[in-house]
Specification:
The chain is α+β, with helices and mostly antiparallel strands and 135 residues long. It has one domain. It has six helices and three strands. It has helices at residues 19-27, 32-39, 43-49, 70-88, 94-103, 106-114; strands at 2-13, 53-65, 119-130. A three-stranded antiparallel sheet has the order 1-3-2. Helix 4 (70-88) packs across helix 5 (94-103). The longest helix has 19 residues, at 70-88. 15% of the residues are buried. The mean pLDDT is 90.
């Protein structure tokens, strides 16, 4: 069994719903981590190509809405801080650079995830396959 983060449903609200996607698209050439999350939906095919049998997978949407628990706040702050760091070395439109620059500030980051309308979306994929029995 393999559990993988799937970035195809990754987003935060309120805000520009395409902002994370522009960052992901612009950074996939320089970040192997971004490339892997973008290709995680291909895990089923990868396991089949390795010869596993009875392969199946399931994607689960995860939604975290305000008010967030402390553990959720820490997790989401870490993710957004990581994206802000990634954005520093990525060519982005000026408005996106400004947004991610603000997210580098702990105060702005805290204000963002403290918004009563804040919502964080992501998804997780679990893939399972059986190694063929060999005699």
């Amino acid at each position: 069994m393999i559990k993988e983060f799937v970035s195809t449903l990754w987003n935060i609200s309120p805000g520009d719903p395409a902002r994370i996607w522009r960052l992901m698209a612009a950074s996939q050439g320089s970040s192997s981590q971004v490339r892997r999350t973008l290709s995680s939906v291909e895990l089923h095919r990868d396991l089949m190509a390795l010869g596993l049998e009875d392969v199946w997978d399931k994607i689960t949407l995860v939604v975290r809405r305000a008010p967030l628990r402390r553990s959720e706040r820490l997790f989401i702050a870490g993710m957004l801080s990581h994206l802000a760091t990634l954005a520093q070395s990525t060519v982005l439109p000026e408005q996106d650079r400004d947004y991610w620059g603000l997210m580098s500030s702990a105060d702005h980051l805290d204000a963002t995830i403290s918004n009563s309308n804040f919502c964080y979306y992501d998804s997780q994929l679990v893939a399972v396959g059986r190694v063929p029995f060999a005699m």
